[in-house]
Design brief:
single chain; mainly alpha; Glutamyl-tRNA Synthetase, domain 3; three-stranded antiparallel sheet; 18 helices
Length: about 475
């Protein structure tokens, strides 16, 4: 096992959006392949015809490329498609039958159940083990599970022993002679000379059966590593019905690939040092299966967002602008599209960059710059205007801004001086002006937008707010 060349595989079934847990498994395999000069084989397990769709396959390949697992990398091999190897799966089943390691059984599923009910022992009872049935329509081929114990040596969990008495003689070929998943999975792993099977914990119960199959096929089993499940904040296994699990969705919301990769790697493993935010090169250097934890890993979207915020702040501003472009020019932006001005956004970009944790949040940060009348948050407006002196302050700011030099520092000093006259600290003094200009109580710094909007537009918004707040016309 250990002296085989390192060949890992990622073997997703294309039956839905690409799950973050799948991405984590893929990355663990990828990190190992890169460090050890091994091969990462992508095998699409597309034998479940009822649930597979080609678009899911494309989605997986795309998402893998997005997180850096690219088909043109020298460590990458594939994609292979399991459905292309059906003949090899059947041939392996025949080999096991010929060798007496598997046998045919003519019981229907209902009959198997009836027998289990009658005996009080669940599962298939080995009824046809010694009946020497030949293959025939409706007959399933079952593996003859040997007596004894199967010890799975798992690089994450250590040795896990399974009493073979608890494993029924499982089906290899269905009654219509098509291979079962377990058989296909092992035959492909054997054919692809896989040295390490690194996959999600949920496959651990299959492992003794798979190890028996490797042995029955005359092969030394691979090294196994089962990585911990991902759970939500209620400690329930992440599920696509309950939780946001699709990599594609995170990507669409403006999580950066590097942040996603870094965060996913920390679900069950941690880099050395103070911070978990580390470059891929360090991950590749340090990642060891032996250091992966057993316990379920909490997929914490808040933490992912914090990672993402850090990665966003590390971008050069030009790159940040480039990455924001799709969000600012999307069909569903809240402003009339012709009112978007890229140079206004560029002027604001640095300020926005430090305040978002997802790229899609930029839209709400700058919408007031491209909307003629940004919608006003009523509650925030009422609150800002009910502060003592808010109305008076607005009136005075309007007066001062009518003639002030239209310059960032002057606008700031002017507003702060008006505020000071009312005994208000700068933050408090800004509040009614901010809501008047942006419609919100929080947002990017105030004075850059005022410069960008210009005197006329600033005064128009301030006057409208004064009127709405019940102040005298100014
Ligand atoms: N196709 C299986 C799945 O997506 C993976 C099996 C394996 O990794 O062995 O769950």
């Amino acid at each position: 096992m250990s002296d085989r060349p390192l060949r890992l595989r990622f073997a997703p079934s294309p039956t839905g959006f690409f799950h973050v847990g799948g991405a984590r498994t893929a990355l663990y395999n990828w990190a190992l392949a890169q460090r050890e000069g091994g091969t990462f084989v992508l095998r699409i397990e597309d034998t479940d015809e009822a649930r597979n769709r080609p678009e899911w396959t494309h989605g997986i390949i795309d998402a893998l490329a997005w997180i850096g697992i690219a088909a043109d990398d020298p460590h990458f091999e594939g994609p292979y498609f399991q459905s292309h190897f059906a003949d090899a799966h059947v041939a392996a089943a025949n080999q096991l039958f010929e060798a007496g390691l598997a046998y045919y059984c003519d019981l229907t599923a209902e009959q198997v159940q009836e027998r289990a009910k009658a005996s009080g022992k669940p599962g298939y009872d080995g009824y046809s083990r010694d009946r020497n049935l030949e293959p025939g329509p409706g007959r399933v081929l079952r593996f003859r599970v040997p007596a004894g114990t199967t010890v799975v040596t798992d690089l994450v969990r250590g040795e896990v022993s399974f009493d073979n008495a608890n494993t029924e003689d499982f089906v290899l070929l269905r009654g219509n002679a098509t291979p079962m998943f377990l058989l296909a999975n092992v035959v492909d792993d054997v054919a692809m000379r896989i040295s390490h099977v690194v996959r999600a914990e949920e496959h651990l119960p299959n492992t003794p059966k798979q190890q028996m199959l490797w042995e029955a096929l005359g092969e030394e089993p691979p090294a196994w590593a089962h990585v911990p499940v991902l759970v939500n904040e209620q400690r329930k296994k992440l599920s696509k019905r309950r939780d946001k699990v699709a990599v594609e969705q995170y990507r669409a919301e403006g999580y950066l690939a590097d942040a996603m990769v870094n965060y996913l790697m920390t679900l069950g493993w941690a880099p050395s040092g103070e911070t978990e935010i580390v470059p891929w090169s360090q991950i590749v250097d340090e990642f060891r299966l032996e250091d992966v934890t057993h316990s379920p890993a909490f997929f914490d979207i808040k933490k992912l967002s914090a990672f993402n915020g850090e990665y966003i702040r590390k971008l050069g501003v030009e790159r940040f602008i480039e990455l924001c472009a799709p969000y600012l020019t999307a069909d569903d932006v809240p402003w009339p599209r012709e009112q978007f001005n890229p140079s206004v956004f560029s002027a604001m970009a640095e300020l926005v960059q430090t305040r978002v944790t997802r790229l899609d949040q930029v839209v709400a940060m700058v919408d007031f710059l491209f909307l003629t009348d940004p919608p006003i948050d009523d509650d925030a407006f009422a609150k800002a205007m009910s502060a003592p002196n808010a109305i008076a302050l607005l009136g005075e700011v309007i007066g001062a801004y009518e003639t002030a030099e239209w310059d960032h520092d002057v606008l700031k000093e002017t507003l702060e001086a008006v505020g000071a006259g009312h005994g208000l600290k700068p933050g408090k003094a800004q509040a009614p002006v901010r809501i008047a200009i942006t419609g919100r109580s929080v947002g990017p710094p105030l004075y850059e937008p005022l410069v960008l909007l210009g005197r006329e537009e600033t005064l128009r918004r301030l006057r409208a707010a004064l009127e709405r707040g019940g102040g005298p016309a100014a």
